[in-house]
Amino acid sequence: MQQHEINTLIIDDDKDICVLLKKLLTEDGYNVEISTRPRQALRKIRGKTYHVIILDLKMPDINGLDLLTKIKKINSDISVIILTAFPSVDSAVQTLKADAFDYVKKPFNIDKLRKTIKTALRSRRLLIEPEERLNIKIGKRLKELRNGKKLTLKQFAEKADLSVSLVSQIERAECAASISTLNKIVTVLNISLEEFFKNI
């Protein structure tokens, strides 16, 4: 998923914070909506898929922790990042127990918040870096070609003089294959590196 496909909702009764975050995150390429009215935000969440929600903890209309619980009942996959000007160990523990992704105190460092958002998206495999995307394609290609040769993971690993665990990790895109590993792989497949990377 590309950043422009990531739907983000900012829920904070402070309109200035909403406007600032919307401007910054829109510049980063996210689809951003704001809501200064928490109860209206719940209606939005019921009607649309959001990937990340930035939620203020203390609001006059409804407590952020209660809102977090309601959000998670609607869609447990949403990554909710809590913002608060009144941090405490108790509220941090409560929100994390309620499955908030992270707890960020105001005033916040925008670069740290951006990093937190990216980490949340990566943890759900929603944001994939170019290198990760390449590893996924290499893994898929390897599995496809290995299956085409009717070789089990173990048989393939033995022929390539690689560990079963390494071949499995490459296929699942959990690690990058080195050039020497790729050379062993294409030797067993009886193709060139150029052929292996064709259409990747």
Q: How many alpha or pi helices?
A: 10
Summed up, the domain count is 2
Helix content: 40-55%
- Placed side by side, the strands forming the largest sheet appear as 2-1-3-4-5
Helix-strand string: EHEHEHEHEHHHHHH
CATH homologous superfamily identity of the largest domain = Response regulator
Point out poorly predicted stretches. none
Structural class: alpha/beta
CATH topology of the largest domain: Rossmann fold
- What best-fitting shape do the alpha-carbon axes yield? elongated
Annotated CATH architecture of the largest domain: 3-Layer(aba) Sandwich
Arithmetic mean of pLDDT: 92
Instruction: Give the amount of beta strand, in percent.
Output: 5-15%
What is the count of β-strands? 5
Distance between the termini: 17 Å
The biggest beta sheet is recorded as: 5 strands, parallel
- Rounded to an integer in angstroms, the radius of gyration calculated over CA atoms is 22 Å
CATH classification, class level of the largest domain: Alpha Beta
Quick gist of this model?
The chain is an alpha/beta fold. Helix content is 54%, strand content 12%.
Characteristics of this structure?
single chain, 200 residues, Rossmann fold, 434 Repressor (Amino-terminal Domain), 2 domains, 10 helices
Give the SSE layout.
Layout (H helix, E strand, L loop, with lengths): L6 E5 L3 H13 L3 E5 L2 H10 L4 E5 L7 H11 L4 E6 L4 H9 L4 E4 L4 H14 L6 H19 L4 H8 L3 H8 L7 H11 L3 H4 L4
Parallel strand pairs: 1-2, 1-3, 3-4, 4-5
Helix pairs in contact: 2-3, 7-8
